[in-house]
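Operator note (shift B, R.M.): manual run for Cupin domain-containing protein requested after the automated queue skipped it. Running by hand, logging everything below so the morning shift can see what happened. Input copied straight from the record, untouched. If output looks odd, do not overwrite the archive copy; leave it for review.
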Amino acid sequence: MNNSPVPVNIADKLAQFSDLWSQKKIAQLNDYEVKLAKLKGEFVWHKHDDTDELFLVISGRLTLQLRDGDVTLGPGELYVVPQGVEHCPVADEETAILLFEPVGTPNTGDAGGSRTKAPETLS
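Run finished. Output pasted below as returned.
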């Protein structure tokens, strides 16, 4: 059995799935999950009362609608939505993102509903 360290290749992980708005866990760091997702369209307005949420755009463009004004991100850009701030992600084109948040953080925050999904682990 080979126990040598293996890096996580983000492009390879993104190639493993095509479903939208479904988070895929690719690593864990202490009590935080590193997740990928592909987005297109508009999500739901929500907030996370107990944690900040980091969005890093890998490809495409993501607009984070905020009540105080929108933030638009392109590839290689990130934004941290502060704890308790209501937001709604929107992607006019298919967009790949990396998320970093505590284990067990619901993707729909306080909104709940049919779009709430636990992350799947990619091998």
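Quick read of the result: Helices lie at 10-14. The mean pLDDT is 91.
Leaving this for review. - R.M.
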